Amino acid sequence: MAKAITFLLLLLIAPAAYAQTTHIVGGSDGWDTHVNYDDWGRGQNFTTGDILVFKYSSDHAVNEVNQTDYQNCDTENYIYSNSSSPTNISLSKAETRYFICPRSNHCSGQGMKLTVTVLSGSTSPGGSKPSPPGTPETPPLPAGGATGILGDRTSLMVGISVVWGALLGLMG
To answer: How many domains does the chain have?
Structure first.
């Protein structure tokens, strides 16, 4: 009986270990010249395990660069470059990362550049992630009930519910 209870508790804790957020860069507008990425980035909380998704047309690309090249919109010394949309970037460690569009004048003339400060940690029990320094408040939980909060993890929760029911049936 004690083993069954321990197993069930582990199943309940497991979703927090796999919690991640997928950030569509620029929201519904994607990676494009008419988005203010400073404003968009301020509305996001990035933590280790999250994923950035850059969606863009063939007019754009994504370069990851260092801070100096970001400030100067220098596209020559990139760390990583991709021109195949969507481009997925895993945020695997706490650090600040810099992204620019290497196409002519898109970074310097049209502001197509993004700074991402990744914090270590995971989703807190309250459902929000720690805010970067200087952020006035944590945004509210997404609307839409469990689907809004859990996002793509709803199938995991359904699976846990099925296992839970089966174990309760065996114990009863």
So the answer is: 1
Cα separation values, 161 from 18, 99, 127, 144, Å: 17, 40, 20, 20
| Domain-embedded: residue 8 | no
Phi, psi values for residue 123, rounded to 5°: -60, 135
In terms of residue numbers, what domain contains 121? 20-134
**DSSP E strand boundaries for the chain:** 22-24, 46-47, 51-54, 62-65, 80-82, 87-90, 95-100, 113-119
Q: What is the pLDDT of residues 110-163, one digit of tens each?
A: 999 999 999 997 544 333 344 344 433 334 334 443 433 444 443 444 445 545
Q: How far is the C-alpha of 102 from the C-alpha of 81, rounded, in Å?
A: 9
Using alpha carbons only, how large is the chain's radius of gyration in Å? 20
Which alpha helices (DSSP H) does 18-130 contain, by range? 37-42, 67-72
Length of the chain, in residues: 172
- 35: domain CATH number is 2.60.40.420
Q: What is the pTM of this model?
A: 0.63
d(CA 30, CA 16): 28
